[in-house]
Every structure is written in C-alpha cells, then in structure tokens.
Amino acid sequence: MEFELTINGESVKVDAPPDMPLLWVLRDLAGLTGSKYGCGMAQCGACTVHLAGQPVRSCVLPVSGVVGQPITTIEGAAATGKVANAVQQAWVDLAVAQCGYCQSGQIMSAIALLQSKPKPSDADIDAAMSGVLCRCATYHRIRAAIHTAAESLS
C-alpha cells in the first residue's frame, strides 16, 4: 500500500504494509537510520521520533496510523529551531554520548521536554527521560546537558 508521509518537512511516498512499524519505514524505506531499533516493545526509547511535535516510540506505531501527521527524526531535528540546536550543542559540549546507541532517542526526548518546559527541574528531566534507557549509564551527563541547554536558551 502506498502512503504519503511528511518526514522532516518533506513529502515522502512509501510502499509498505499498513501494519509496518514506522521505525522500519524510516530506516528501510526512507533511508533515515538515526532512529535505532532497541527492543521493539516501546520500552527502551532508542527509536524515539517526534510525531506532531510529541516524542513517540516508532517501533510500535504502524505506518497507517501516522499518515497526515508531521514526523521529525534526529536527522531533521536541527531544522526545528533553537531548542534542538541548544540540546545538540550541550550534548557535544558535555560529551554526553559514550557508545551513542541511545543518543537519538535521548536527544529527541530532551528537545520535546525543553519545548514544553523551558526550565525543567531534575524531577521533570527524570520523568521525561525515564523511557529512554542508556546502557552506558550516562544519566548524570544527560541531565547536566539538558540543564545546560535550558540555560543557553534563557
């Protein structure tokens, strides 16, 4: 079945089964490999993208359920504005990534948090980021980077 999606501001046509997870559409059909497969059960957050501005787990969303809603992946995040740029810069400045596997999910979740809550507390950060697991346990650097990004935006 052919679907027309808006991915990172561009119209993209894909031929996929209606129940194909968005993650595989993005990675295999659209060639956007920044979102990662981690668990396939929406529990690790490595596959996080924005759907209409909200962070979602793309590994469990059927492509048929996202038609008509803008999708932003890590590849298109920088184009969304200064919050995304501040988060990405803070990630670099504080050397947040270790293995890097979870980082696209971490960054996409952090962007969504700062867009909705520009000055988050530690508790806000912990709540917003709790669904994105980091096997390297860089949680203290992730929290610090979110605070740094928030400060740079004020």
Strand and helix map with partners:
Layout: E1 2-7, E2 10-15, H1 22-29, E3 48-51, E4 54-57, E5 70-72, H2 82-93, H3 103-116, H4 122-129, H5 139-153
Parallel strand pairs: 1-5
Antiparallel strand pairs: 1-2, 3-4, 3-5
Helix pairs in contact: 2-3, 2-5, 3-4
Protein name: (2Fe-2S)-binding protein
GO molecular function: 2 iron, 2 sulfur cluster binding; metal ion binding; oxidoreductase activity
Domain 2Fe-2S ferredoxin-type: 1-77
Offer a quick outline of the entry.
This protein has 154 residues and is an alpha+beta fold. The chain has 5 helices and 5 strands. Strand 3 and strand 4 (54-57) form a beta hairpin.
Q: In the CATH classification, which architecture of the largest domain applies?
A: Orthogonal Bundle
Our estimate of the beta-strand percent is: 5-15%
Q: Can you identify the CATH superfamily of the largest domain?
A: [2Fe-2S]-binding domain
Give unreliable regions as ranges. Answer: none
> How many DSSP E strands?
5
* Secondary-structure element order, N to C: EEHEEEHHHH
Coarse shape: globular
Please list the strands of the largest sheet in the order they lie side by side: 2-1-5-3-4
GO molecular function, one term: oxidoreductase activity
Domain 2Fe-2S ferredoxin-type: 1-77
Keywords: 2Fe-2S, Iron, Iron-sulfur, Metal-binding, Oxidoreductase
Protein name: (2Fe-2S)-binding protein
